[in-house]
Protein backbone atom coordinates (compact mmCIF):
# COMPACT_ATOMS: atom_id res chain seq x y z
CA UNK A 1 0.00 0.00 0.00
CA UNK A 2 1.68 3.22 -1.16
CA UNK A 3 0.44 6.20 0.82
CA UNK A 4 1.48 9.80 0.09
CA UNK A 5 1.10 12.76 2.39
CA UNK A 6 0.49 16.19 0.85
CA UNK A 7 1.09 18.73 3.60
CA UNK A 8 0.19 22.41 3.72
CA UNK A 9 -1.66 25.06 5.65
CA UNK A 10 -4.47 25.12 3.07
CA UNK A 11 -5.74 28.53 4.22
CA UNK A 12 -7.77 27.95 2.07
CA UNK A 13 -7.34 25.06 -0.39
CA UNK A 14 -7.08 26.34 -4.00
CA UNK A 15 -7.40 24.90 -7.52
CA UNK A 16 -3.59 24.77 -7.56
CA UNK A 17 -3.58 22.46 -4.54
CA UNK A 18 -6.37 20.37 -6.10
CA UNK A 19 -4.31 19.94 -9.27
CA UNK A 20 -1.43 18.47 -7.22
CA UNK A 21 -3.77 16.30 -5.13
CA UNK A 22 -5.68 14.85 -8.09
CA UNK A 23 -2.47 14.11 -10.01
CA UNK A 24 -1.03 12.42 -6.91
CA UNK A 25 -4.06 10.13 -6.68
CA UNK A 26 -2.90 8.56 -9.97
CA UNK A 27 0.52 7.71 -8.53
CA UNK A 28 -0.23 6.05 -5.18
CA UNK A 29 -2.94 3.96 -3.54
CA UNK A 30 -3.95 6.62 -1.04
CA UNK A 31 -3.33 10.34 -0.65
CA UNK A 32 -3.61 11.98 2.76
CA UNK A 33 -4.01 15.74 2.68
CA UNK A 34 -2.34 16.91 5.90
CA UNK A 35 -3.68 20.23 7.13
CA UNK A 36 -1.01 21.80 9.36
CA UNK A 37 -2.16 23.90 12.30
CA UNK A 38 0.54 26.50 11.34
CA UNK A 39 -0.25 28.89 14.23
CA UNK A 40 2.72 31.09 13.20
CA UNK A 41 0.88 31.88 9.94
CA UNK A 42 -2.15 33.15 11.91
CA UNK A 43 -4.59 31.43 9.53
CA UNK A 44 -7.83 33.12 8.46
CA UNK A 45 -9.72 29.81 8.70
CA UNK A 46 -9.58 27.67 11.84
CA UNK A 47 -8.00 24.24 11.44
CA UNK A 48 -11.43 22.52 11.49
CA UNK A 49 -12.72 24.89 8.79
CA UNK A 50 -9.67 24.23 6.58
CA UNK A 51 -10.15 20.46 7.00
CA UNK A 52 -13.88 20.69 6.19
CA UNK A 53 -13.21 22.77 3.05
CA UNK A 54 -10.47 20.37 1.88
CA UNK A 55 -12.83 17.41 2.49
CA UNK A 56 -15.60 19.05 0.49
CA UNK A 57 -13.22 20.01 -2.34
CA UNK A 58 -11.77 16.47 -2.63
CA UNK A 59 -15.06 14.59 -2.17
CA UNK A 60 -14.97 13.43 -5.83
CA UNK A 61 -11.55 11.79 -5.35
CA UNK A 62 -12.08 8.33 -3.91
CA UNK A 63 -8.56 7.68 -2.54
CA UNK A 64 -8.13 10.92 -0.60
CA UNK A 65 -8.40 11.46 3.15
CA UNK A 66 -8.01 14.80 4.92
CA UNK A 67 -6.47 14.95 8.40
CA UNK A 68 -5.10 17.77 10.55
CA UNK A 69 -1.76 17.70 12.35
CA UNK A 70 0.18 19.83 14.80
CA UNK A 71 3.58 18.14 15.05
CA UNK A 72 6.70 17.59 12.95
CA UNK A 73 5.79 16.67 9.40
CA UNK A 74 7.96 13.53 9.36
CA UNK A 75 6.42 12.36 12.65
CA UNK A 76 2.94 12.78 11.23
CA UNK A 77 3.98 10.90 8.07
CA UNK A 78 5.28 8.04 10.24
CA UNK A 79 2.11 8.04 12.35
CA UNK A 80 -0.15 7.63 9.30
CA UNK A 81 2.31 5.23 7.59
CA UNK A 82 2.97 7.46 4.58
CA UNK A 83 6.19 6.58 2.76
CA UNK A 84 6.09 9.60 0.44
CA UNK A 85 5.70 13.35 0.84
CA UNK A 86 4.35 15.14 -2.22
CA UNK A 87 4.74 18.89 -2.64
CA UNK A 88 3.70 21.23 -5.41
CA UNK A 89 6.41 23.26 -7.08
CA UNK A 90 5.21 26.43 -8.76
CA UNK A 91 8.15 28.54 -9.85
CA UNK A 92 11.87 28.86 -9.30
CA UNK A 93 11.08 30.99 -6.23
CA UNK A 94 9.65 27.91 -4.45
CA UNK A 95 12.78 25.91 -5.07
CA UNK A 96 15.15 27.20 -2.41
CA UNK A 97 12.59 26.90 0.40
CA UNK A 98 11.46 23.46 -0.73
CA UNK A 99 15.09 22.38 -1.11
CA UNK A 100 15.76 23.34 2.53
CA UNK A 101 12.59 21.65 3.81
CA UNK A 102 13.31 18.47 1.86
CA UNK A 103 16.91 18.32 3.06
CA UNK A 104 15.82 18.80 6.68
CA UNK A 105 12.98 16.30 6.46
CA UNK A 106 15.43 13.79 4.94
CA UNK A 107 17.84 14.33 7.84
CA UNK A 108 14.98 13.82 10.30
CA UNK A 109 13.72 10.62 8.65
CA UNK A 110 15.55 8.98 5.75
CA UNK A 111 12.77 6.46 5.18
CA UNK A 112 10.46 9.15 3.81
CA UNK A 113 10.94 10.25 0.22
CA UNK A 114 9.83 13.66 -1.09
CA UNK A 115 8.46 14.03 -4.62
CA UNK A 116 7.49 17.23 -6.42
CA UNK A 117 4.70 17.86 -8.89
CA UNK A 118 5.15 20.92 -11.12
CA UNK A 119 2.20 23.27 -11.30
CA UNK A 120 0.74 23.90 -14.74
CA UNK A 121 1.15 27.51 -16.01
CA UNK A 122 -2.34 28.62 -15.00
CA UNK A 123 -1.63 27.90 -11.32
CA UNK A 124 2.02 29.00 -11.16
CA UNK A 125 1.15 32.39 -9.67
CA UNK A 126 -1.52 31.14 -7.28
CA UNK A 127 -1.16 31.11 -3.50
CA UNK A 128 -3.59 31.01 -0.62
CA UNK A 129 -2.55 34.47 0.57
CA UNK A 130 -3.20 36.02 -2.87
CA UNK A 131 -6.66 34.40 -2.89
CA UNK A 132 -7.36 35.75 0.62
CA UNK A 133 -6.26 39.22 -0.41
CA UNK A 134 -8.44 39.29 -3.54
CA UNK A 135 -11.43 38.01 -1.54
CA UNK A 136 -10.85 40.53 1.26
CA UNK A 137 -11.06 43.31 -1.35
CA UNK A 138 -14.32 41.80 -2.65
CA UNK A 139 -12.67 40.54 -5.87
CA UNK A 140 -13.87 37.46 -7.76
CA UNK A 141 -11.88 34.34 -6.78
CA UNK A 142 -14.18 31.79 -8.42
CA UNK A 143 -11.64 30.64 -11.03
CA UNK A 144 -8.95 30.08 -8.37
CA UNK A 145 -10.84 28.07 -5.76
CA UNK A 146 -13.51 25.35 -5.56
CA UNK A 147 -17.04 26.69 -5.09
CA UNK A 148 -17.24 25.74 -1.39
CA UNK A 149 -14.13 27.84 -0.70
CA UNK A 150 -15.50 30.79 -2.69
CA UNK A 151 -18.65 30.70 -0.56
CA UNK A 152 -16.66 30.38 2.68
CA UNK A 153 -14.46 33.36 1.75
CA UNK A 154 -17.53 35.49 0.94
CA UNK A 155 -19.07 34.55 4.30
CA UNK A 156 -15.82 35.22 6.18
CA UNK A 157 -15.36 38.70 4.72
CA UNK A 158 -19.06 39.54 5.05
CA UNK A 159 -18.56 39.03 8.83
CA UNK A 160 -15.68 41.52 8.83
N1 LIG B 1 -0.87 25.64 -5.84
C1 LIG B 1 -1.26 26.76 -5.20
N2 LIG B 1 -0.63 27.25 -4.12
C2 LIG B 1 0.42 26.57 -3.67
C3 LIG B 1 0.90 25.41 -4.29
C4 LIG B 1 0.20 24.95 -5.42
N3 LIG B 1 0.58 23.84 -6.07
N4 LIG B 1 1.99 24.98 -3.61
C5 LIG B 1 2.17 25.84 -2.61
N5 LIG B 1 1.23 26.79 -2.65
C6 LIG B 1 1.12 27.97 -1.77
C7 LIG B 1 0.53 27.68 -0.44
O1 LIG B 1 -0.87 27.86 -0.47
C8 LIG B 1 1.21 28.70 0.42
O2 LIG B 1 0.55 29.92 0.24
P1 LIG B 1 0.55 31.04 1.39
O3 LIG B 1 1.97 31.24 1.82
O4 LIG B 1 -0.02 32.17 0.68
O5 LIG B 1 -0.30 30.47 2.48
C9 LIG B 1 2.58 28.88 -0.20
O6 LIG B 1 2.43 28.44 -1.52
C10 LIG B 1 3.66 28.12 0.48
O7 LIG B 1 3.32 26.74 0.45
P2 LIG B 1 4.04 25.72 1.43
O8 LIG B 1 5.51 25.91 1.32
O9 LIG B 1 3.52 24.36 1.13
O10 LIG B 1 3.62 26.28 2.84
P3 LIG B 1 2.38 25.87 3.69
O11 LIG B 1 2.19 26.88 4.74
O12 LIG B 1 1.19 25.60 2.84
O13 LIG B 1 2.83 24.48 4.38
C11 LIG B 1 4.14 23.07 5.85
C12 LIG B 1 4.05 24.41 5.09
C13 LIG B 1 2.91 22.85 6.68
C14 LIG B 1 4.27 21.94 4.84
C15 LIG B 1 5.42 23.16 6.71
O14 LIG B 1 5.39 24.34 7.48
C16 LIG B 1 5.55 21.98 7.65
O15 LIG B 1 6.03 20.95 7.25
N6 LIG B 1 5.09 22.15 8.91
C17 LIG B 1 5.12 21.10 9.93
C18 LIG B 1 6.20 21.36 10.97
C19 LIG B 1 7.54 20.84 10.52
O16 LIG B 1 7.74 19.66 10.32
N7 LIG B 1 8.49 21.79 10.36
C20 LIG B 1 9.85 21.45 9.99
C21 LIG B 1 9.99 21.19 8.51
S1 LIG B 1 11.67 20.84 8.11
Q: Which ranges are low-confidence, i.e. pLDDT below 50, for 5 or more consecutive residues?
A: none
Q: Give the helix/strand class.
A: alpha/beta
The average pLDDT score comes to 96
- Biggest sheet: strands side by side, in what order? 3-2-1-4-5
Global shape:
globular
- Through-space gap between termini: 45 Å
SSE ordering: EHEHEHEHEHH
Radius of gyration: 15 Å
Number of alpha- plus pi-helical segments: 6
User: How much helicity do the residues have?
Assistant: 40-55%
Specify the biggest β-sheet: 5 strands, parallel
Q: In percent terms, what proportion of residues is strand?
A: 15-25%
Number of strands: 5
Bound molecules: coenzyme A
Fold and architecture overview:
This protein has 160 residues and is an alpha/beta fold. 42% of the residues lie in helices and 19% in strands. It has six helices and five strands. A five-stranded parallel sheet has the order 3-2-1-4-5. Strand 2 (30-36), helix 2 and strand 3 (64-69) form a beta-alpha-beta unit. The protein is globular and about 45 Å long. The protein starts with a strand and ends with a helix. The relative contact order is 0.20. The mean pLDDT is 96.
Amino acid sequence: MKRALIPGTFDPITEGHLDVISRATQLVDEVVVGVAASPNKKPLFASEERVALAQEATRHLKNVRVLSFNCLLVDFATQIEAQILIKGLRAITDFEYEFQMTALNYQLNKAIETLFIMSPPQYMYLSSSIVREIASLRGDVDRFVPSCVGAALKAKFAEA
